[in-house]
Amino acid sequence: MALYFDHRIEAPDTVGSPSHIGWHPVHPLLAVASVSTTSGGSVDMYLEQGERVPDTHVERSFRVTSLCWHPTRLILAIGWESGEVVMFNKQDKEQHAVPANHTADIAILAWSPNGNCLVSGDRLGVLLLWRLDQRGRVQGMPLLRLEYGQPLTHCIFLLPPPGEDLVQLARAAVSGDEKALDMFNWRKSGFGSILKMGSQEGLSFFVSLTDGTVHHVDEKGRTAQVASTDSSIQTLFYLEQRGALVAVTDSLLLCLFTVTPEGTAEEVMKVKLSGKTGHRADITLIDSSLLVTAIGETALRFWDLERGESYVLSPEEKFGFEKGENINCVSYCKVKGLLAAGTDKGRVAMWRKVPGLLNGHGAEGKEKWTLQTPTELEGNIMQIKWGSRKSLLAVNSISSVLILREQAMSSHFHQQDAVAVWNGKQVVIFEPSGATLRSAGSFLCESPVLAMHEENVYTVEPNRVQVRTWQGTVKQLLPFSESEGNPCFLDICGTFLVVGTDLAYFKSFDLSRREAKVHCSCKSLAELVPGVGGLTSLRCNASGSKISLLLSKADNSPDSRICFYDVDMDTVTILDLKTGQIDQRETLSINGQETKKSQALEDERLTDLVPMNHFWDQSEPRLFVCEAVREVPSAPPQPADRSMPAEASTGRVPPQADVLVLSFFVSEEHGFLLQDSFPRPPAFQTLLGIQVPHYYFTRKPGEANLEDQLDSRSQCIPQAVGRRPLRDFVGLEDCDKPTRDAMLNFSFFLAIGDMDEAFRSIKLIKSQAVWENMARMCVKTQRLDVARVCLGHMGHAQGARALREAQQEPEPEARVAMLAVQLGMLEDAEQLYKRCGRYDLLNRLLQASGQWQRAIEVAERHDRMHLRTTYYNYARHLEASGDCSLALSYYEKSDTHRFEVPRMLAEDLQALKLYVSKMKDKTLWRWWAQYLESQAKMDAALHYYELAQDYFSLVRVHCFQGNIQRAAEIASETGNWAASYHLARQYESQNEVRQAVHFYTRAQAFNNAIRLCKEHGLDDQLMNLALLSSPEDMLEAARYYEERGEQMDRAVMLYHKAGHFSKALELAFATQQFAALQLVAEDLDEKSDPALLARCSDFFLEHGQYEKAVELLLAAKKYQEALQLCLEQNLTITEEMAEKMTVPKDCKELSEEARRALLEQVASCCMRQGSYHLATKKYTQAGDRLKAMRALLKSGDTEKIVFFAGVSRQKEIYIMAANYLQSLDWQKDPEVMKSIISFYTKGRALDLLAGFYDACAQVEVDEYQNYDKAHGALTEAYKCLSKAKARSPLDQEARLAQLQSRMTLVKRFMQARRTYTEDPEESIRQCQLLLEEPHLDSSVRVGDVYGFLVERHVHAGNLQAAYKYLEEMRRRLPSANMSYYVSQHIVDAVHQGLGLPLTCEAPERMRHNSVEEHKGADEEVAEEVESGP
Known about the structure:
Elements: E1 2-8, E2 17-23, E3 30-36, E4 40-46, E5 58-60, E6 64-69, E7 75-80, E8 85-89, E9 94-97, E10 106-111, E11 117-122, E12 126-131, E13 144-147, E14 152-157, H1 164-174, H2 178-184, E15 205-209, E16 213-217, E17 223-228, E18 233-239, E19 244-249, E20 253-259, E21 265-272, E22 282-286, E23 290-294, E24 300-304, E25 309-313, E26 327-333, E27 338-343, E28 347-353, E29 369-371, E30 375-376, E31 383-387, E32 392-396, E33 401-408, E34 419-422, E35 426-433, E36 436-444, E37 450-453, E38 456-461, E39 464-468, E40 474-479, E41 487-493, E42 496-501, E43 505-510, E44 517-524, H3 525-528, E45 534-540, E46 546-552, E47 558-566, E48 571-576, E49 581-587, E50 593-599, E51 609-616, E52 623-630, E53 659-667, E54 671-679, E55 684-691, E56 694-699, H4 706-710, E57 721-725, H5 737-752, H6 755-762, H7 768-781, H8 784-794, H9 797-805, H10 812-822, H11 826-835, H12 839-848, H13 852-861, H14 867-881, H15 884-893, H16 897-904, H17 909-919, H18 922-934, H19 938-947, H20 951-960, H21 964-974, H22 977-989, H23 993-1002, ...
Antiparallel strand pairs: 1-33, 2-3, 3-4, 4-5, 6-7, 7-8, 8-9, 10-11, 11-12, 12-13, 14-15, 15-16, 16-17, 18-19, 19-20, 20-21, 22-23, 23-24, 24-25, 26-27, 27-28, 28-29, 28-30, 31-32, 32-33, 34-35, 35-36, 37-38, 38-39, 39-40, 41-42, 42-43, 43-44, 45-46, 46-47, 47-48, 48-49, 49-50, 51-52, 52-53, ...
Helix pairs in contact: 1-2, 5-6, 6-7, 7-8, 7-10, 9-10, 10-11, 11-12, 12-13, 13-14, 14-15, 15-16, 18-19, 19-20, 20-21, 20-22, 21-22, 22-23, 23-24, 24-25, 25-26, 26-27, 27-28, 28-29, 30-31, 31-32, 32-34, 34-35, 35-36, 36-37, 36-38, 37-38, 38-39, 39-40, 39-48, 40-41, 41-42, 41-48, 42-43, 43-44, ...
């Protein structure tokens, strides 16, 4: 809460009424120009409380027309109506006249941004630019002179771009350079060392004229018109961020121009503002986007330049304003966010700007502003201005000028029986005397801060703290060195005093003795917390062991961290309320600091906070409390005014911000423990202190506590102060000290989570609030066992029952969430349900708590199973709330609108009819038709029944109206069963039997149709209906025919169709209906009666239908008879018959031997019939794989033979398969050759494998003349034969010797061919020796040897020798074809070379490719043979 004290300026009696006022931009100095009819005009300067500054009176015989302060220095430029310009230096008390160059009223005065130049302009349009020194004296001639010919109205300078050094310094600061950051920190940069802003002086500006034109003057003095309006410009603004120029004319025409760096302007918007003309408008600009206009009306008019929107604000009568009170002037203070306006009734209205909301979106329009209590003055306020760093408000009410100075409410909380009040100059001590306070001492002292303890008063002066008596006598001095700074913060808690300095040093003292003793030596905050900006507040606890400090950043904005210094351990702990983390730093003498981080605030809602106030309990040293505001990006907390004590500072808190109160237990063993957190109650303004069992707050004006008013003890608590009990002390506010200590221990143990100790602390306390707090803690610790005890002590029967029922939930979090719901902790319950994924229970919770939109969102995203139910419940809620239109929408979403909407709109039939017509839903149409039918509106009902396609109802209504023909047409066209049935009933009641039977048939009501046919003898229709009807109806019809004794074939057929085969067969045999008997027998299967099957089979045997008889015998499971019949009648056994003859293994009717015998008989029969595959299958099922293989071999199916041999894994079968494959053309199929080798190998038939390799060798010689492959095959044959277990060792030895001999001969021939290139003679000699071998032809063909000799001699040119060998080969092989061994062109070459006639031989035999592809198979099989037994 803040009040404004008005200070009337102490103006001399000789001055007249004030005409102009102007604040210095920095210093609290107000210049006031006055007009007197006798003496002319004068200017005086005043301080913040209205004191006139001596020797500052400037007087002329002319009126003052303009005032302009220097941007930084104490120099005032004064313009007079004579054209004179006077520079007054307040520092030196000197006046310096500007050379006379103006001859008319001075209209404009404006300083350049750096304050080195001054622009002056008069009513004749003459504009001059002067350069001045630091004392305000003009240097030389004008830098610029321009003549526009029209009176000047405004001048605005453009800010120059930042200098290179500032840009580089800013970049370095952003990148983390601490030296650069220090340059921006006024404490570390030498108290305001000025950075160079750039090489340019910023001499570019805009001027406006009364003819509505705007001109630009650049750095070189060139001027150009850049804009034009319809009338004189009364206000001109430049928006630096947007690079735009705003002009408002006398006719309230708003023009917006965009400005380029070169100074050219382009119009982008022109708007006519509302308001009356003819009155001088006072216009101010807020945040470069909002224009506020006061035109002597009852409201302020706002225009948003960014959104293009407008609105008005009016003073409200409930705040004390009069009806019809007009606003003349307006001014805005950006620092305080206050908009001040002066009225013609002498009141100052103020609106405070609402900060941005927590979700990042600020208020819009008039919602941005909150009207404050006005300040009552006198007269007609014509001028109002904010100014100086202290944000003072000057008010000109024609007759006098007043300065409004904000005084925040001061408050302090301490255990002291005296009160000290001081205003910075004088201290007055009061002590209680009954219901009043009496003065106990006073003294003069210019101390900005003050503290009291018992009989001592502590004040400060440079570099020391004074300990005084109540009368001001100095008893002791507590000195500080110059490096430590000047004391500016004091706090006393218990018997300890802590002092902070302006250089961020602090020291504590023990006050328990007669004189103060140092308890903690002086510490530097910069050394403890590197990079900190400064110190804004400090406190100590009751034992003096902990000191808490609030910090500021380098830009003097509040820091989110709280620093805690442990005096005993010499450690620093930092609690960051923005992140919720604790940073513990241990001070080390050598290596600096060691840092340990941990999380203190797990709840995300307790983050992004900035501390404002902090306190320790007056007697409990562990209990710490702080007041924190939510950090809002769009409205950051403002730093506290350093000239005011921390207790009185309210500038840190954005108005109506989200403020929280956090209390902690701070201990050495457990660190920081959050004890409680809650929003500051709306009736309270700020936290004042804490003393168990209460928090103490200052109240907002008019927010008296009703409970205090009713309480007789409220006299001891002033209405400006309120209190709230600690969470665990609700109901125990007046407890004694043992109880208070027990409750403190309870709170402490709850904070650390030790439920057992907490329970022991309060087991003797009978307070429902205590047990409720412990139950709430059980939600955090999930101790449901303790929670049951707490609910019992609370008498919370409903909660105990709900907790017992919740034990059925499988998730522990869901059970704890139910406890949270019963205790009203809905947010905790919501988090628990989310954690365990029970969105169905979360949905129910949100519905029960009325959070319907969130419930729908949860159902749509996570609980779609209950989405329609949620829609339905919300619709019921909306209907109960009277919002029928929205309820209708959600009934539709829940798909219950077909019933619920008619019910809901039953009282509004017109709306219901419109809804039914709009929805075009068949169900709704049918419902509406039924309603109309109940109202006897048959024609309308028929219309809606037809729309709903409810043909049954159409037929029903037409029948009711007697329109049977139309009903028959509808039933016939639509085929609707219900309609046809109803119509059939109508025809039956009218004895129209055939029509009734027809429509019963269309309605599929065959039993009724059959009933009518039997009653009226319609036998022809009866048969057809019975065949279409159910088996029961068929039986009824069959009995009907049987009883009548006529048409017995129909009876047999119906018995057959109804599934009564025995009855059908019996009747067929009895009536000798063989055709029907055959039809019935076709449907018999194994489920039928065996006797019946046997009887039917005999019947078919008698009539020569053997196949049907076999099927029935098989169905009767007479396998032998069926098989014998097949053999006798030479019936082909199909696969289906064979499968029926295959008895399952688990059959109990046949033994395993009988089963196998039957299968072998079936297989044998199949073999005789040539069904080899089927025989193989049956032999396999019988377990005789050899016979199965023999059957398969007869089929000749190579693929199945190979597969069967592979899966059988029997030696005999392998050998049989290999023998079969060897009978094929295996030379052309490598896979067959590979299978032969594999099967012989797996069957351990190495002798047969050796024979196969021998055959392979012979093929290689005969077919391919490949002796290399032949030698390899012979080698493999030798290996296999040597490993084979022969019955006759002599025969085996003979075969081995034969193979060895053949291998030798082949190898000799191979060697002879290879050595020909190296030694031809030896090669030929070897071939000749081979020809002399007696059994050569069994290993090496003689023709190949002769052919080799002929070819070699021809190539050598020895044709005679070649011819000799040709002739010898013809003699030795008279029947052989020569071209098979020697190519025909070689023979021709020999004959031509010797001049012999050519011989005609048979065509050369086509040679096949050598089986190179067998190589891989040979090698693989060779490996198997070598690894064999």
